[in-house]
Hints:
CATH architecture of the largest domain: 3-Layer(aba) Sandwich
CATH superfamily of the largest domain: Isopropylmalate Dehydrogenase
Helix content: 40-55%
Structural class: alpha/beta
Mean pLDDT: 96
Strand content: 15-25%
Bound molecules: nicotinamide-adenine-dinucleotide, 3-isopropylmalic acid, magnesium ion
Amino acid sequence: MSKNVLILPGDGIGPEIVAQARRVLELVNAQDNLGLELTEALVGGAAIDADGVPLPQATLDAANAADAILLGAVGGPEWDTNPDFQIRPEKGLLGIRSNLGLFGNLRPAILYPQLAHASTLKPEVVSGLDILIVRELTGGIYFGQPRGVREKEGGIREGYNTYVYDENEIRRIGRVAFEAARARDKRLCSVDKANVLEVTVLWREIMEELSKEYPDVELSHMYVDNAAMQLVRAPKQFDVMVTGNMFGDILSDAAAMLTGSIGMLPSASLDVNGKGMYEPCHGSAPDIAGQNLANPLATIMSAGMMLRYSLNEGATADRIEAAVSAVLDQNLRTGDIWSEGMQKVSTSEMGDAVIAALQA
Ligand SMILES: NC(=O)c1ccc[n+]([C@@H]2O[C@H](COP(=O)([O-])OP(=O)(O)OC[C@H]3O[C@@H](n4cnc5c(N)ncnc54)[C@H](O)[C@@H]3O)[C@@H](O)[C@H]2O)c1
Ligand SMILES: CC(C)[C@H](C(=O)O)[C@@H](O)C(=O)O
Ligand SMILES: [Mg+2]
């Protein structure tokens, strides 16, 4: 039976990096007889330009019908000044996450040993790094109501958002994190701001309650400001981190730099049944878009995660990861992970090298 993969290139470097991941998927599909059917649709700024909205109904229908989704990135300065906040590229991405119930966001930050010198941190601080950030993705301040900009007395404008989680939302992301920790080093750090925000007092309470079901997992708690500092100071102290939507967004970008570049960080966003959307953690990188400069490896590794988590093709995912490691062994580097003595390659040359490694 064939499996439907929906590809959403998006904006900026999105189409460039996704093109390389698509080549990889097409190759392993043929090599390993996976029976994948790949289709593409518009999202983000590209969809605004074509259809006037960031998430056309046809794209949402295709996303619902697909077995898995691979997304590039959305957004860019051309759409940032749109006065209607609903007609922003980012709303397309948030709309898919929320409509498909993709609440469980896994962002693994793994340092390939070959890149120990590409990190801005000392090699001894990051070598051997392997942490997993579990980010709640469909709730919290990103989606809380009420929200908006209103006028106070005297015509003073005031912007407001609502940071809200109910206990069921906390419990279900907590379970994802405890299960992930159980399958790894059995240490879970829950990140909150329980010294200030009531919503995260409840978060902490529910994590404690859940930990009774997971006596084999060691639970700790950390305030988010300290967590940001500890990630840079001594990141290897962490195994799995679990946190809400906005804290997870920020901490995962910080974790990305530990691995050498944000161009190396893949992600999975899963629903209750394990159906998922897969995307690099980075954005559309308008500063380098259209120049064949972007690192496609996070997207290629996201395709690998898709095979592992949603399509039950772990062996092929292993092959993709080994191919990524092989191209790094060949000293090939896009600009973001380049260092002295390495060979600088373009987006498509990096894709060529991964393809060649898969064929070797
Ligand atoms: N998931 C997504 O679609 C997503 C994520 C983050 C930001 N965005 C959007 O992207 C746009 C730009 O945001 P930003 O500049 O804050 O973040 P960004 O991640 O796009 O870029 C930050 C920096 O990292 C570099 N970078 C990012 N990905 C890279 C790659 N694969 N290879 C090499 N270098 C890379 C960029 O060149 C830039 O210097 C905004 O419109 C934002 O909303 C989208
Ligand atoms: C583009 C934006 C909506 C998105 C987020 O904040 O979730 C991005 O930063 C991410 O990390 O996936
Ligand atoms: Mg982000």
